[in-house]
Amino acid sequence: MGDTLGMSTRTRLLVAGGGVAALEAAIALRELAEERVSVELLSSKAEFADRPLAVAEPFGSEQAIRYDLPAMANDLGANFRLGTLQEVDASARVVRTTQGDELSWDALLVAIGARAGIGIEGAVTVKGPGFTGRFRSVVRELEDRRVRRVTFAVPPGTSWPLPLYELALMTAALVRQHELRKVELRLVTPEAEPLEIFGAEASSALRAMLQERGIELYTGHYPGSASEEGLELVPRDADPIPADRVVSLPRLGGPKLPGLPADERGFIPVDLHSRVRGLDDVYAAGDATDFPIKQGGIATQQADAAAEVIAAAAGAPVDAQPFRPVLRGLLLTGDTPRFMRAEVSGGRGEDWEVSESALWWPPSKIAGRYLSPYLGVRHGEVERPSGGVSVDVALDKLTPAAG
Q: SS3 of 242, please?
């Protein structure tokens, strides 16, 4: 951060967003800067939903937990404002909302997420809380024996395919539980190995799990579109993969927010301290940024990097550390959970440990340094979701270049 922030008065931080990155930043600033920074939370929604648990909603075993954002903001000593960020004027240090408000700030953190579009034409797209109804219909069709061939397809460009593996595994568990005969489940991915970002050992374990569950795996295949004949591939050098229903994830695009720089896909370029490139006192964290992995834990780590710089500039005794991503994930399987951990160098798994014990506390889907303990203590989230595999991977090679 530049020297533009005054030290004699409280730094006014405006946090745009209502997801994990926004909340992580608000909690971190309360811990790190105490009274040196005042926080205003601008969100288009008045609730915070635990998005990673949404994949379990159609099966009725878990529900995405929802929290009252104004109440959380009040608990954190922050102001809450309902509104949607429309434009940033960095030179005037104001933002404008779609509601016509103009808000001033000393520091700005943009954590508004990405735009979720259709991943595969003709497929059932599972986007998160509130968007699982169509997949719930697929589950009912399976239970009623109206369909028997379901293909799960990772669309090209997806940076976080884990939820689709969860859907496939939990569907297989449902098929086994209801003794549904002649059901065919398939998973198609452009990856060379399943969840290859977690390394060779994790991929091998997941491949074995898919095989044991009766899920036919197609790696190195690029899904095209879904039709009555099944799932078309790109290039069309093979027959369509049989499917009565194709289930997919959204394809993400950046927010393309007026007043902020953007790459060719609309994502906001940031440096290792989550500073928006070319602007003073403007930060971004989470799916809206150009970091290639779009995942809640990564978003909280970006928020931490920004919070430390803001706190230090406000006079707090903080040694601001650059963003050094560690990927933590919990894979819901619909069966007995197994935990795995990787100590790695260079972003790929090398030495893996399998354990029945959790690798972080509370062992929740959201692994944020400040947000997870806050939810655990204030909201009783100390029980982990049932049926999962946890992994912990350093992503050194995916760290953006310093600016």
A: coil
Domains of the chain in start order, with CATH, are: 11-114+254-313 (3.50.50.60), 116-251 (3.50.50.60), 326-398 (no CATH)
Q: From 124, 121, 123, 109, select the one nearest 1 (Cα to Cα).
A: 109
Distance (Å, whole) CA 383 – CA 70: 25
Contact (CB, 8 A) for 75 and 26: no
Contact 99, 83 (CB under 8 A): yes
* Short-list 128, 86, 109, CA closest to 289: 109
Asked if 142 and 150 touch (Cβ cutoff 8 Å), the reply is: yes
Measure the CA angle with vertex 21, ends 272 and 262; round to 5°. Answer: 55
User: What value, to the nearest 5°, has the Cα angle with vertex 71 and ends 65 and 72?
Assistant: 65
SS3 per residue for 312-337: HHCCCCCCCCCCCCEEEEEEECCCCC
| Phi and psi at residue 209, to the nearest 5° | -65, -40
Strand partners for 343: 351
Q: What is the pLDDT of residues 231-249, one digit of tens each?
A: 999 877 678 999 999 999 9
E strand or H helix at 212: helix 200-212
Q: How far apart are CA 373 and CA 234, in angstroms?
A: 44
Q: What is the rounded distance in angstroms from the CA atom of residue 201 to the CA atom of residue 194?
A: 11
Q: 0.70 exceeded by the pTM?
A: yes
Task: Give the model's confidence band at 364: pLDDT under 50 very low, under 70 low, under 90 confident, else very high.
Answer: low
How many other C-beta atoms can be found within 10 angstroms of the C-beta atom of residue 13? 28
Are the CB atoms for 331 and 353 separated by under 8 Å? no
Question: What separation in angstroms does the CA of 223 have from each of 109, 134, 165, 335?
Answer: 36, 20, 15, 28
pLDDT in tens, 333-345: 777 555 555 444 4
Sequence letter at residue 293: I
Q: How far apart are CA 16 and CA 316, in angstroms?
A: 23
d(CA 253, CA 290): 10
- pLDDT of residue 386 exceeding 90, the answer is no
Burial 381-403 (b: 16+ CB within 10 A, else e): beebbebbbbbbbbbeebebeee
